[in-house]
Amino acid sequence: MERQLIRKVSDEWTVPPQLTDYQSVCKNFSWQQIEAELDGLPDGRGMNIGHEAVDRHANGPAAESTALRWLSKDGICADFSYAELGRQSNRFANLLTQLGVNKGDRVFALCGRLPSLYIAALGCWKQLAVFCPLFSAFGPEPIQQRLSRGDAKLLLTTEKLYRKKVAPLRTRLPQLKHVLLVDSEEDLADEVLSLPKALARASDEFQIPATDPEDMAILHFTSGTTGMPKGAVHVHQALLHHYASGRYVLDLRPGDIYWCTADPGWVTGTSYGIIAPLLHRVTNIIDEAEFDSERWYRILSQQQVNVWYTAPTAIRMLMRSGLRPRQATDLSHLRLIQSVGEPLNPEAVLWGQDVLGLPIHDNWWQTETGGIMIANYRATDIRPGSMGQPLPGIEAGIVQQREDGSVEEVEKPGVEGELALRPGWPSMFRTYLHDEERYRTCFKNNWYLSGDLATRDADGYFWFVGRADDIIKTSGHMVGPFEVESALIEHPAVAEAGVIGRPEPTIGELVKAFVTLNPDFEPSDQLRFELLGFARKRLGSAVAPKEIEFLSQLPKTRSGKIMRRLLKARELGQPEGDVSTLEGV
Ligand code: ATP
Ligand code: MG
């Protein structure tokens, strides 16, 4: 495929980017310098996420600036200042102590994007409990699995979710001591308390205990795209990376209006939906509602969002909606759009430029990395389809396995291999909870192995090829599904595509595509032939799909990732495996 380039022109910036000279920032970067910009707890008692994200501002001149702006499903808009968030999270921290929650105990949250969730997260960090957010749409089984694998001691949820999904499981969760109901005015039982009532009794003053940078702060389960979700453990020190990436990738600065569309049940919604924005003292927009193209465009314009962090699945849905917001709404405040979670098709990057007035900036990371590792920056040229370049402070490489099982870096540009990172950055996961052995297998020869395949070009840009599990071997070629999917969605009829390899004795695997169509298009044999020809012309016959099947929707995780393993299992009539994160079940 022909590669395009979006050049960044410096005289187009009214607000100059915080990272302008990528090479020199990388060269001069040090974690000590980042740490020096933050506060630390008084009297050298360490560094705590709750303090840096909230109290640092609440105790200073910007105490009354807006930290959270919550937009409810039904039209309420509620602002919380840094001072208010400081007091509320203090109350929550005191409440945890009263309830006997100790340092390192796990506090789970199972509720939608409600203010209490954010207050609880900050309260946990202050009190040194471990915050573990779950998607509220999970069914009872995935909830039970996670609460039990994470040794949940306390659960924050709504009355409805408690009655429907948790109460029936209580006997299977002996370690769960307390439930706090965010929306109930009355206690339901001794161990099922009304959060508003309990908070009202708690003091709004709290002294954060000494915090070791290695104290556990967050437990996040991975998305389950490739199998059983793993519980990644993160520590307080991660905030250094959230802060650095908030500046260099998201270009955040105090007073910005920032909107991250991810739910905290997915790591993006915590690292970049809570921590990084508050560290930078922005106004953090939280929308309680689910995706809706008109609503989203309205939020971008009415709230005058400056920086927007979203995901490819949402962008593809906006593309599919056919709306052209700039004709009806004012998006002039927007200065940066970032996207993460899945490969971002070149088509989508360019659509952003055309329809929103800005290209979409792709970036790559994982639950395990805790923060953004590879990104496109405001000031650097974009090569649509590339994830960009490693962050300052991050060393990324392409590695291949040698015969003896060890790995070595491939220096030559364009060669496919596993995307690997040099361990040691602050937000790196510290283990998979209760699975130290699996954690250890992620590291070899001083590299963290991501499980994703990629290439690096001569200029240091990384290109996603596919997850190691999804790579298709066909007639002696290795085919990455992303390349095939991206070619298909260039066709006007195609909204989304998921590509798999179906075992075929003569050729190894046959490339098969599942596609969903844009409105105004109907599945037909004629369209199928047209798409097969379209893909063949773009990709060549070795890589192009040999079969295309129309679906009304693709199976996705709740964070919006296409689950190719499910497409494959269904195609082969095999068991579906863990479907706890599958959307719509
Ligand atoms: P599991 O590990 O349970 O299978 P998961 O890998 O989807 O789930 P996450 O940690 O949420 O869980 O997702 C990280 C993965 O998402 C990456 O390893 C990569 O495969 C994919 N990903 C994230 N961002 C990008 C991107 N910009 N381009 C391509 N792939 C991406
Ligand atoms: Mg993964």
Keyphrases for this structure?
single chain; globular; 15-stranded mixed beta sheet; Rossmann fold; 30% helix; alpha/beta; binds adenosine-5'-triphosphate; 585 residues; 2 domains
Description of the molecule:
There is one protein chain. The protein has 585 residues and is α/β, with parallel strands linked by helices. It has two domains: 10-392 and 406-456, Rossmann fold; 470-572, GMP Synthetase, Chain A, domain 3, CATH 3.30.300.30. Helix content is 30%, strand content 24%. The protein is built from 18 helices and 28 strands. The strands form five sheets. The protein has a 15-stranded mixed beta sheet that branches. A five-stranded parallel beta sheet has the order 4-3-5-6-7, sandwiched between helices. Strands 8-9-20 form a three-stranded antiparallel beta sheet. β24 and β25 form a beta hairpin. α3 packs across α4, α3 packs across α5 (115-127) and α4 crosses α5. The protein is globular, with a radius of gyration of 24 Å. The two termini are 37 Å apart. The mean pLDDT is 95. The structure holds adenosine-5'-triphosphate (ATP) and magnesium ion. Magnesium ion (MG) binds at residues 222, 226, 366, 451.
Tally of contiguous helical segments: 18
Q: Give the strand content.
A: 15-25%
CATH topology of the largest domain: Rossmann fold
Helix/sheet category: alpha/beta
The average pLDDT is 95
Give the second-level CATH assignment, the architecture of the largest domain. Answer: 3-Layer(aba) Sandwich
Portion of residues in helices?
Answer: 25-40%
Biggest sheet overview:
15 strands, mixed
Distance between the termini: 37 Å
| CATH class designation of the largest domain | Alpha Beta
Number of strands: 28
Principal-axis shape equals: globular
CATH superfamily of the largest domain: ANL, N-terminal domain
Q: How large, in whole angstroms, is the Cα Rg?
A: 24 Å
Which ligands appear in the coordinates?
A: adenosine-5'-triphosphate, magnesium ion
Instruction: State the low-pLDDT regions, or none.
Output: none
What is the number of domains? 2
